[in-house]
Amino acid sequence: MQKVSDWTIHRLSSYHRLLSEFANEGKEYISSHELAQRAGATPAQVRRDLSCFGTFGTKGKGYLVADLISKITSILGIDRDWRVALVGAGRLGSALFSYKEFRKRNFHIVAVFDSDRHKVGKHWADVQIDHPDDMKSIVRQRKVDIGVIAVPADTAQSVANAMVDAGIKAILNFAHRKLFVPDGVTLRNVNMAMELETLSYVMTKNRTRR
Amino acid sequence: MQKVSDWTIHRLSSYHRLLSEFANEGKEYISSHELAQRAGATPAQVRRDLSCFGTFGTKGKGYLVADLISKITSILGIDRDWRVALVGAGRLGSALFSYKEFRKRNFHIVAVFDSDRHKVGKHWADVQIDHPDDMKSIVRQRKVDIGVIAVPADTAQSVANAMVDAGIKAILNFAHRKLFVPDGVTLRNVNMAMELETLSYVMTKNRTRR
After folding, report:
1. Residue of A124, A67, A78 lying closest to A101 (CA atoms)
2. Looking at this predicted complex, what is its ipTM?
3. Which of A32, A95, A202, B194 allows an S-S link to B91, with CB 3.0 to 4.6 Å?
4. B106-158: per-residue pLDDT in tens?
């Protein structure tokens, strides 16, 4: 299989959502053109992204919506449950915990950690907040797959180390600090300012054009 | 100027961050290869993205880091301040308000709205929480450029309508609801589950490979 960029995976993720919309609208087939238009990409880009994973679509008819949904589901690995540990029970952690889209996409937060002794022992829904000192045993017991870092930048690296030490192989980092993880551990950084920059780009462009 | 996809803009945004890292590391020049490697893209992709905006780089030497930073800054429109109104003073709103990266990238939250009468009148740092009924005059007074929606899905469309009515031309939506805005208004939807799907993709791929 050829090397697939994160950008392709992001787009697949976005195609998946849009295809569900098309399915809800009762569409059976869809062209790369229609999908591209809704995704803010080009038809060539859509075809190139999908071609990384095999041959899809029927000449002249386009893609069978249900079929493409199920194939992307399986490519993204969201046809199974993923068990997530969240570290940081602050504002961001709390927002992430109640973010319904995670659960809808089969990501379940099964453990929450915070080093603040006032928070440890409290419950968020049915999950108890634990101290990071207990991470290793809890991660093992609850079969955690993914760690989410929602702590301030200055403690993010030590949290990442603890996650790696606990056997977590995939980490999503919301802190603004470059983190180092050993080979074999996958790290992704989230930057919410990126979306605002798409907006400032569009507005700057429109202003220049006038 | 050719049509530029949102994905290209996202990558520019990411190149911008990485270039700042390279600058901090004392690098003066950088190749498309080095930039691509850190960005999780291909060198061809990097060159294609930049070529949308003119000619960059010197043959055999690569890109001058400082120069490329300043050009991308200007393309993204982040060489000026942007004034943001946040609607929804709940968990997510609170996390966004304290998200330092926004301010660092010149996005300033200058107004916060919530329809909960218990929240109206309270202050977050130096910003008072106001009722959405006052959106029109406040948006005008504070010269708001961008609206951020951080309310539950079922009220998101009415918030978007109020923003449009108040003259906001760019909206960032965190609610999971397809929103409709008139022509001339730019809408972007944020999906944080997308990043988790990059992780599940990698882990699924690794598992299949073993």
Report:
1. A78
2. 0.90
3. A95
4. 999 999 999 999 999 999 999 999 999 999 999 999 999 999 999 999 999 99
Q: Please judge whether A193 and B104 are an interchain contact, meaning their C-beta atoms are less than 8 angstroms apart.
A: yes
Orientation angle between helical segments B6-24 and B43-51, nearest 10 degrees? 110
Pick from A95, A107, A178: CB nearest B196: A107
Tell me, yes or no, whether B1 lies in a domain: no
Q: What is the pLDDT of residues A94-131, one digit of tens each?
A: 999 999 889 999 999 999 999 999 999 999 999 999 99
**Which of B47, B76, B105 lies at the terminal end of a domain, its last residue?**
B76
**A78 part of contact set with chain B, CB < 8 Å:** yes
CA atoms within a 13 Å half-sphere pointing along the CA-CB vector of B196: 26
B86 in the same domain as B70: no
Residues B25 and B69 in one domain: yes
B13: nearest CB among A90, A145, A197: A197
Per the structure, the complete domain to which residue B67 belongs is given by 6-76
Whether residue B148 sits in one domain with residue B69: no
